[in-house]
Write a structure and sequence with these properties.
Elements (H helix, E strand, L loop, with lengths): L1 H8 L4 E5 L2 H13 L4 E5 L12 E7 L10 H11 E12 L15 H7 L4 E12 L4 E11 L4
Parallel strand pairs: 1-2, 3-4
Antiparallel strand pairs: 4-6, 5-6
Length: 151
């Protein structure tokens, strides 16, 4: 939720979602304490279409690697429902290059990203990155993916 506060501090409209109501309450309180206008909602990412809004950009910091492969088509459909044509999806997810000893959610391959966003999307880039946590960092993919322009 910190990323939403960051963008709100820079003057951008920011809407953050999570399924955990406690996380939403804490994020709302923190943003209000800093005088930031951020809308935080309890919402499953597989139900983004319920927002009934369109955005230029969607930022995902640690979500894409959590749904199962079976749920990814529903996620992408919902993502398309909230991104304007030509809108950009910026995503940071755990990489398959991370060693397997540490208990992480699904490690994602570049192929999985490309396969998930084949139809109606354009992969701008997939770059190696580090997913920083409070404890340490893990190998990740940073991706920029654009929704196709509608004719």
């Amino acid at each position: 939720m910190g990323i939403m506060r960051f963008f709100a501090e820079k003057g951008h409209e920011a809407v953050g979602i999570a399924t955990a109501s406690l996380a939403i309450r804490k994020a709302t309180k923190k943003a209000a304490g800093r005088g930031l206008q951020v809308q935080f909602l309890v919402l499953n990412a597989l139900a983004l279409s319920r927002l009934k809004r369109k955005f230029d950009t969607a930022i995902d910091s640690g979500l894409f690697h959590t749904p199962s492969g079976e749920d990814r088509p529903a996620f992408v459909k919902n993502l398309a429902a909230v991104l304007k044509p030509g809108g950009r999806y910026l995503m940071l997810c755990f990489s398959d290059l991370e060693p397997g000893e540490y208990p992480l959610p699904g490690r994602i391959t570049q192929r999985e990203i490309r396969d998930t966003f084949r139809a109606g999307w354009s992969i701008n880039y997939i770059r190696p990155a580090i997913f920083e946590s409070r404890i340490d960092g893990h190998r990740a993919w940073l991706s920029s993916i654009s929704r196709a322009m509608q004719s």
